[in-house]
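Ticket #4471: structure export looks truncated?
Reporter: QA, pipeline team
Priority: medium

Steps to reproduce: submit the single chain below to the structure queue and open the exported record.
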Amino acid sequence: MPREHIADLLLAEISAFAHRLQHQHPLMQAALQGRVTPRTVGSYLAGIKYLLEHTPVHLKVAATAASQRGFFELAEYFEHKLREEEGHARWAESGLQQMIRALGVSASAIPNSMLVMVTYLGEVVENRPSHYPGYILFAEHMTVQAGGVWVAALAEHCGIPPAAMSSIVNHVELDQLHVAEGREEINRLLRHVEEPAPVIVTLRRAMSHFEAFCDELHQSVARSTLAPATSCSAGPSLPP
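Actual output as written to the record:
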């Protein structure tokens, strides 16, 4: 496949992963069955907040690394994304505060899987900045494809107020335009890439880290002993 179609390769990987996570992962099934607790949602938001807090850091490092390698157009892309990301971590913080007020959820520790994911992304932006747009495409596409379904399942079946999930709701709205523009932008930015396979490997590793985050959250669901004061209100199970 010609190099100008590298975005098609990345989007095929992302779409297959997002579809599988949305329709087959046990965490989503638990949400549809009303089994995801407020405590697990608190852990989810703590992880997302940590990721969003580090995104500006990663974009700054990526811009510097790209400039040092002579990829000035790529550096400008990262700087533009940095301006777009301003204040996004506050959405997750607001969601955590909403969980405390509405459901009495205490502050949650950052899941270890998210610590590992953020460390991996830090290594990518420093050493392989041209691979980072693939992760950005994944983050935006995954949010648009599965974010709304996740928020709706938690609200309808688990009693989680949508206001607590504003970090996802707001990104769904913003990222719809980004996804629409993303294909041509990625093809333009990565036109210097001679071999797409390493970029795809980096993308797959980032997606595997995100799935590990979902796995860890589901493990907390499995461990939970639901009490009347904190349990989700069980709803009917929906087909995948």
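Status: closed, not a bug. The export was complete when the record was re-opened. Leaving a note from the reviewer for reference: DSSP finds nine helices and no strands in the chain.
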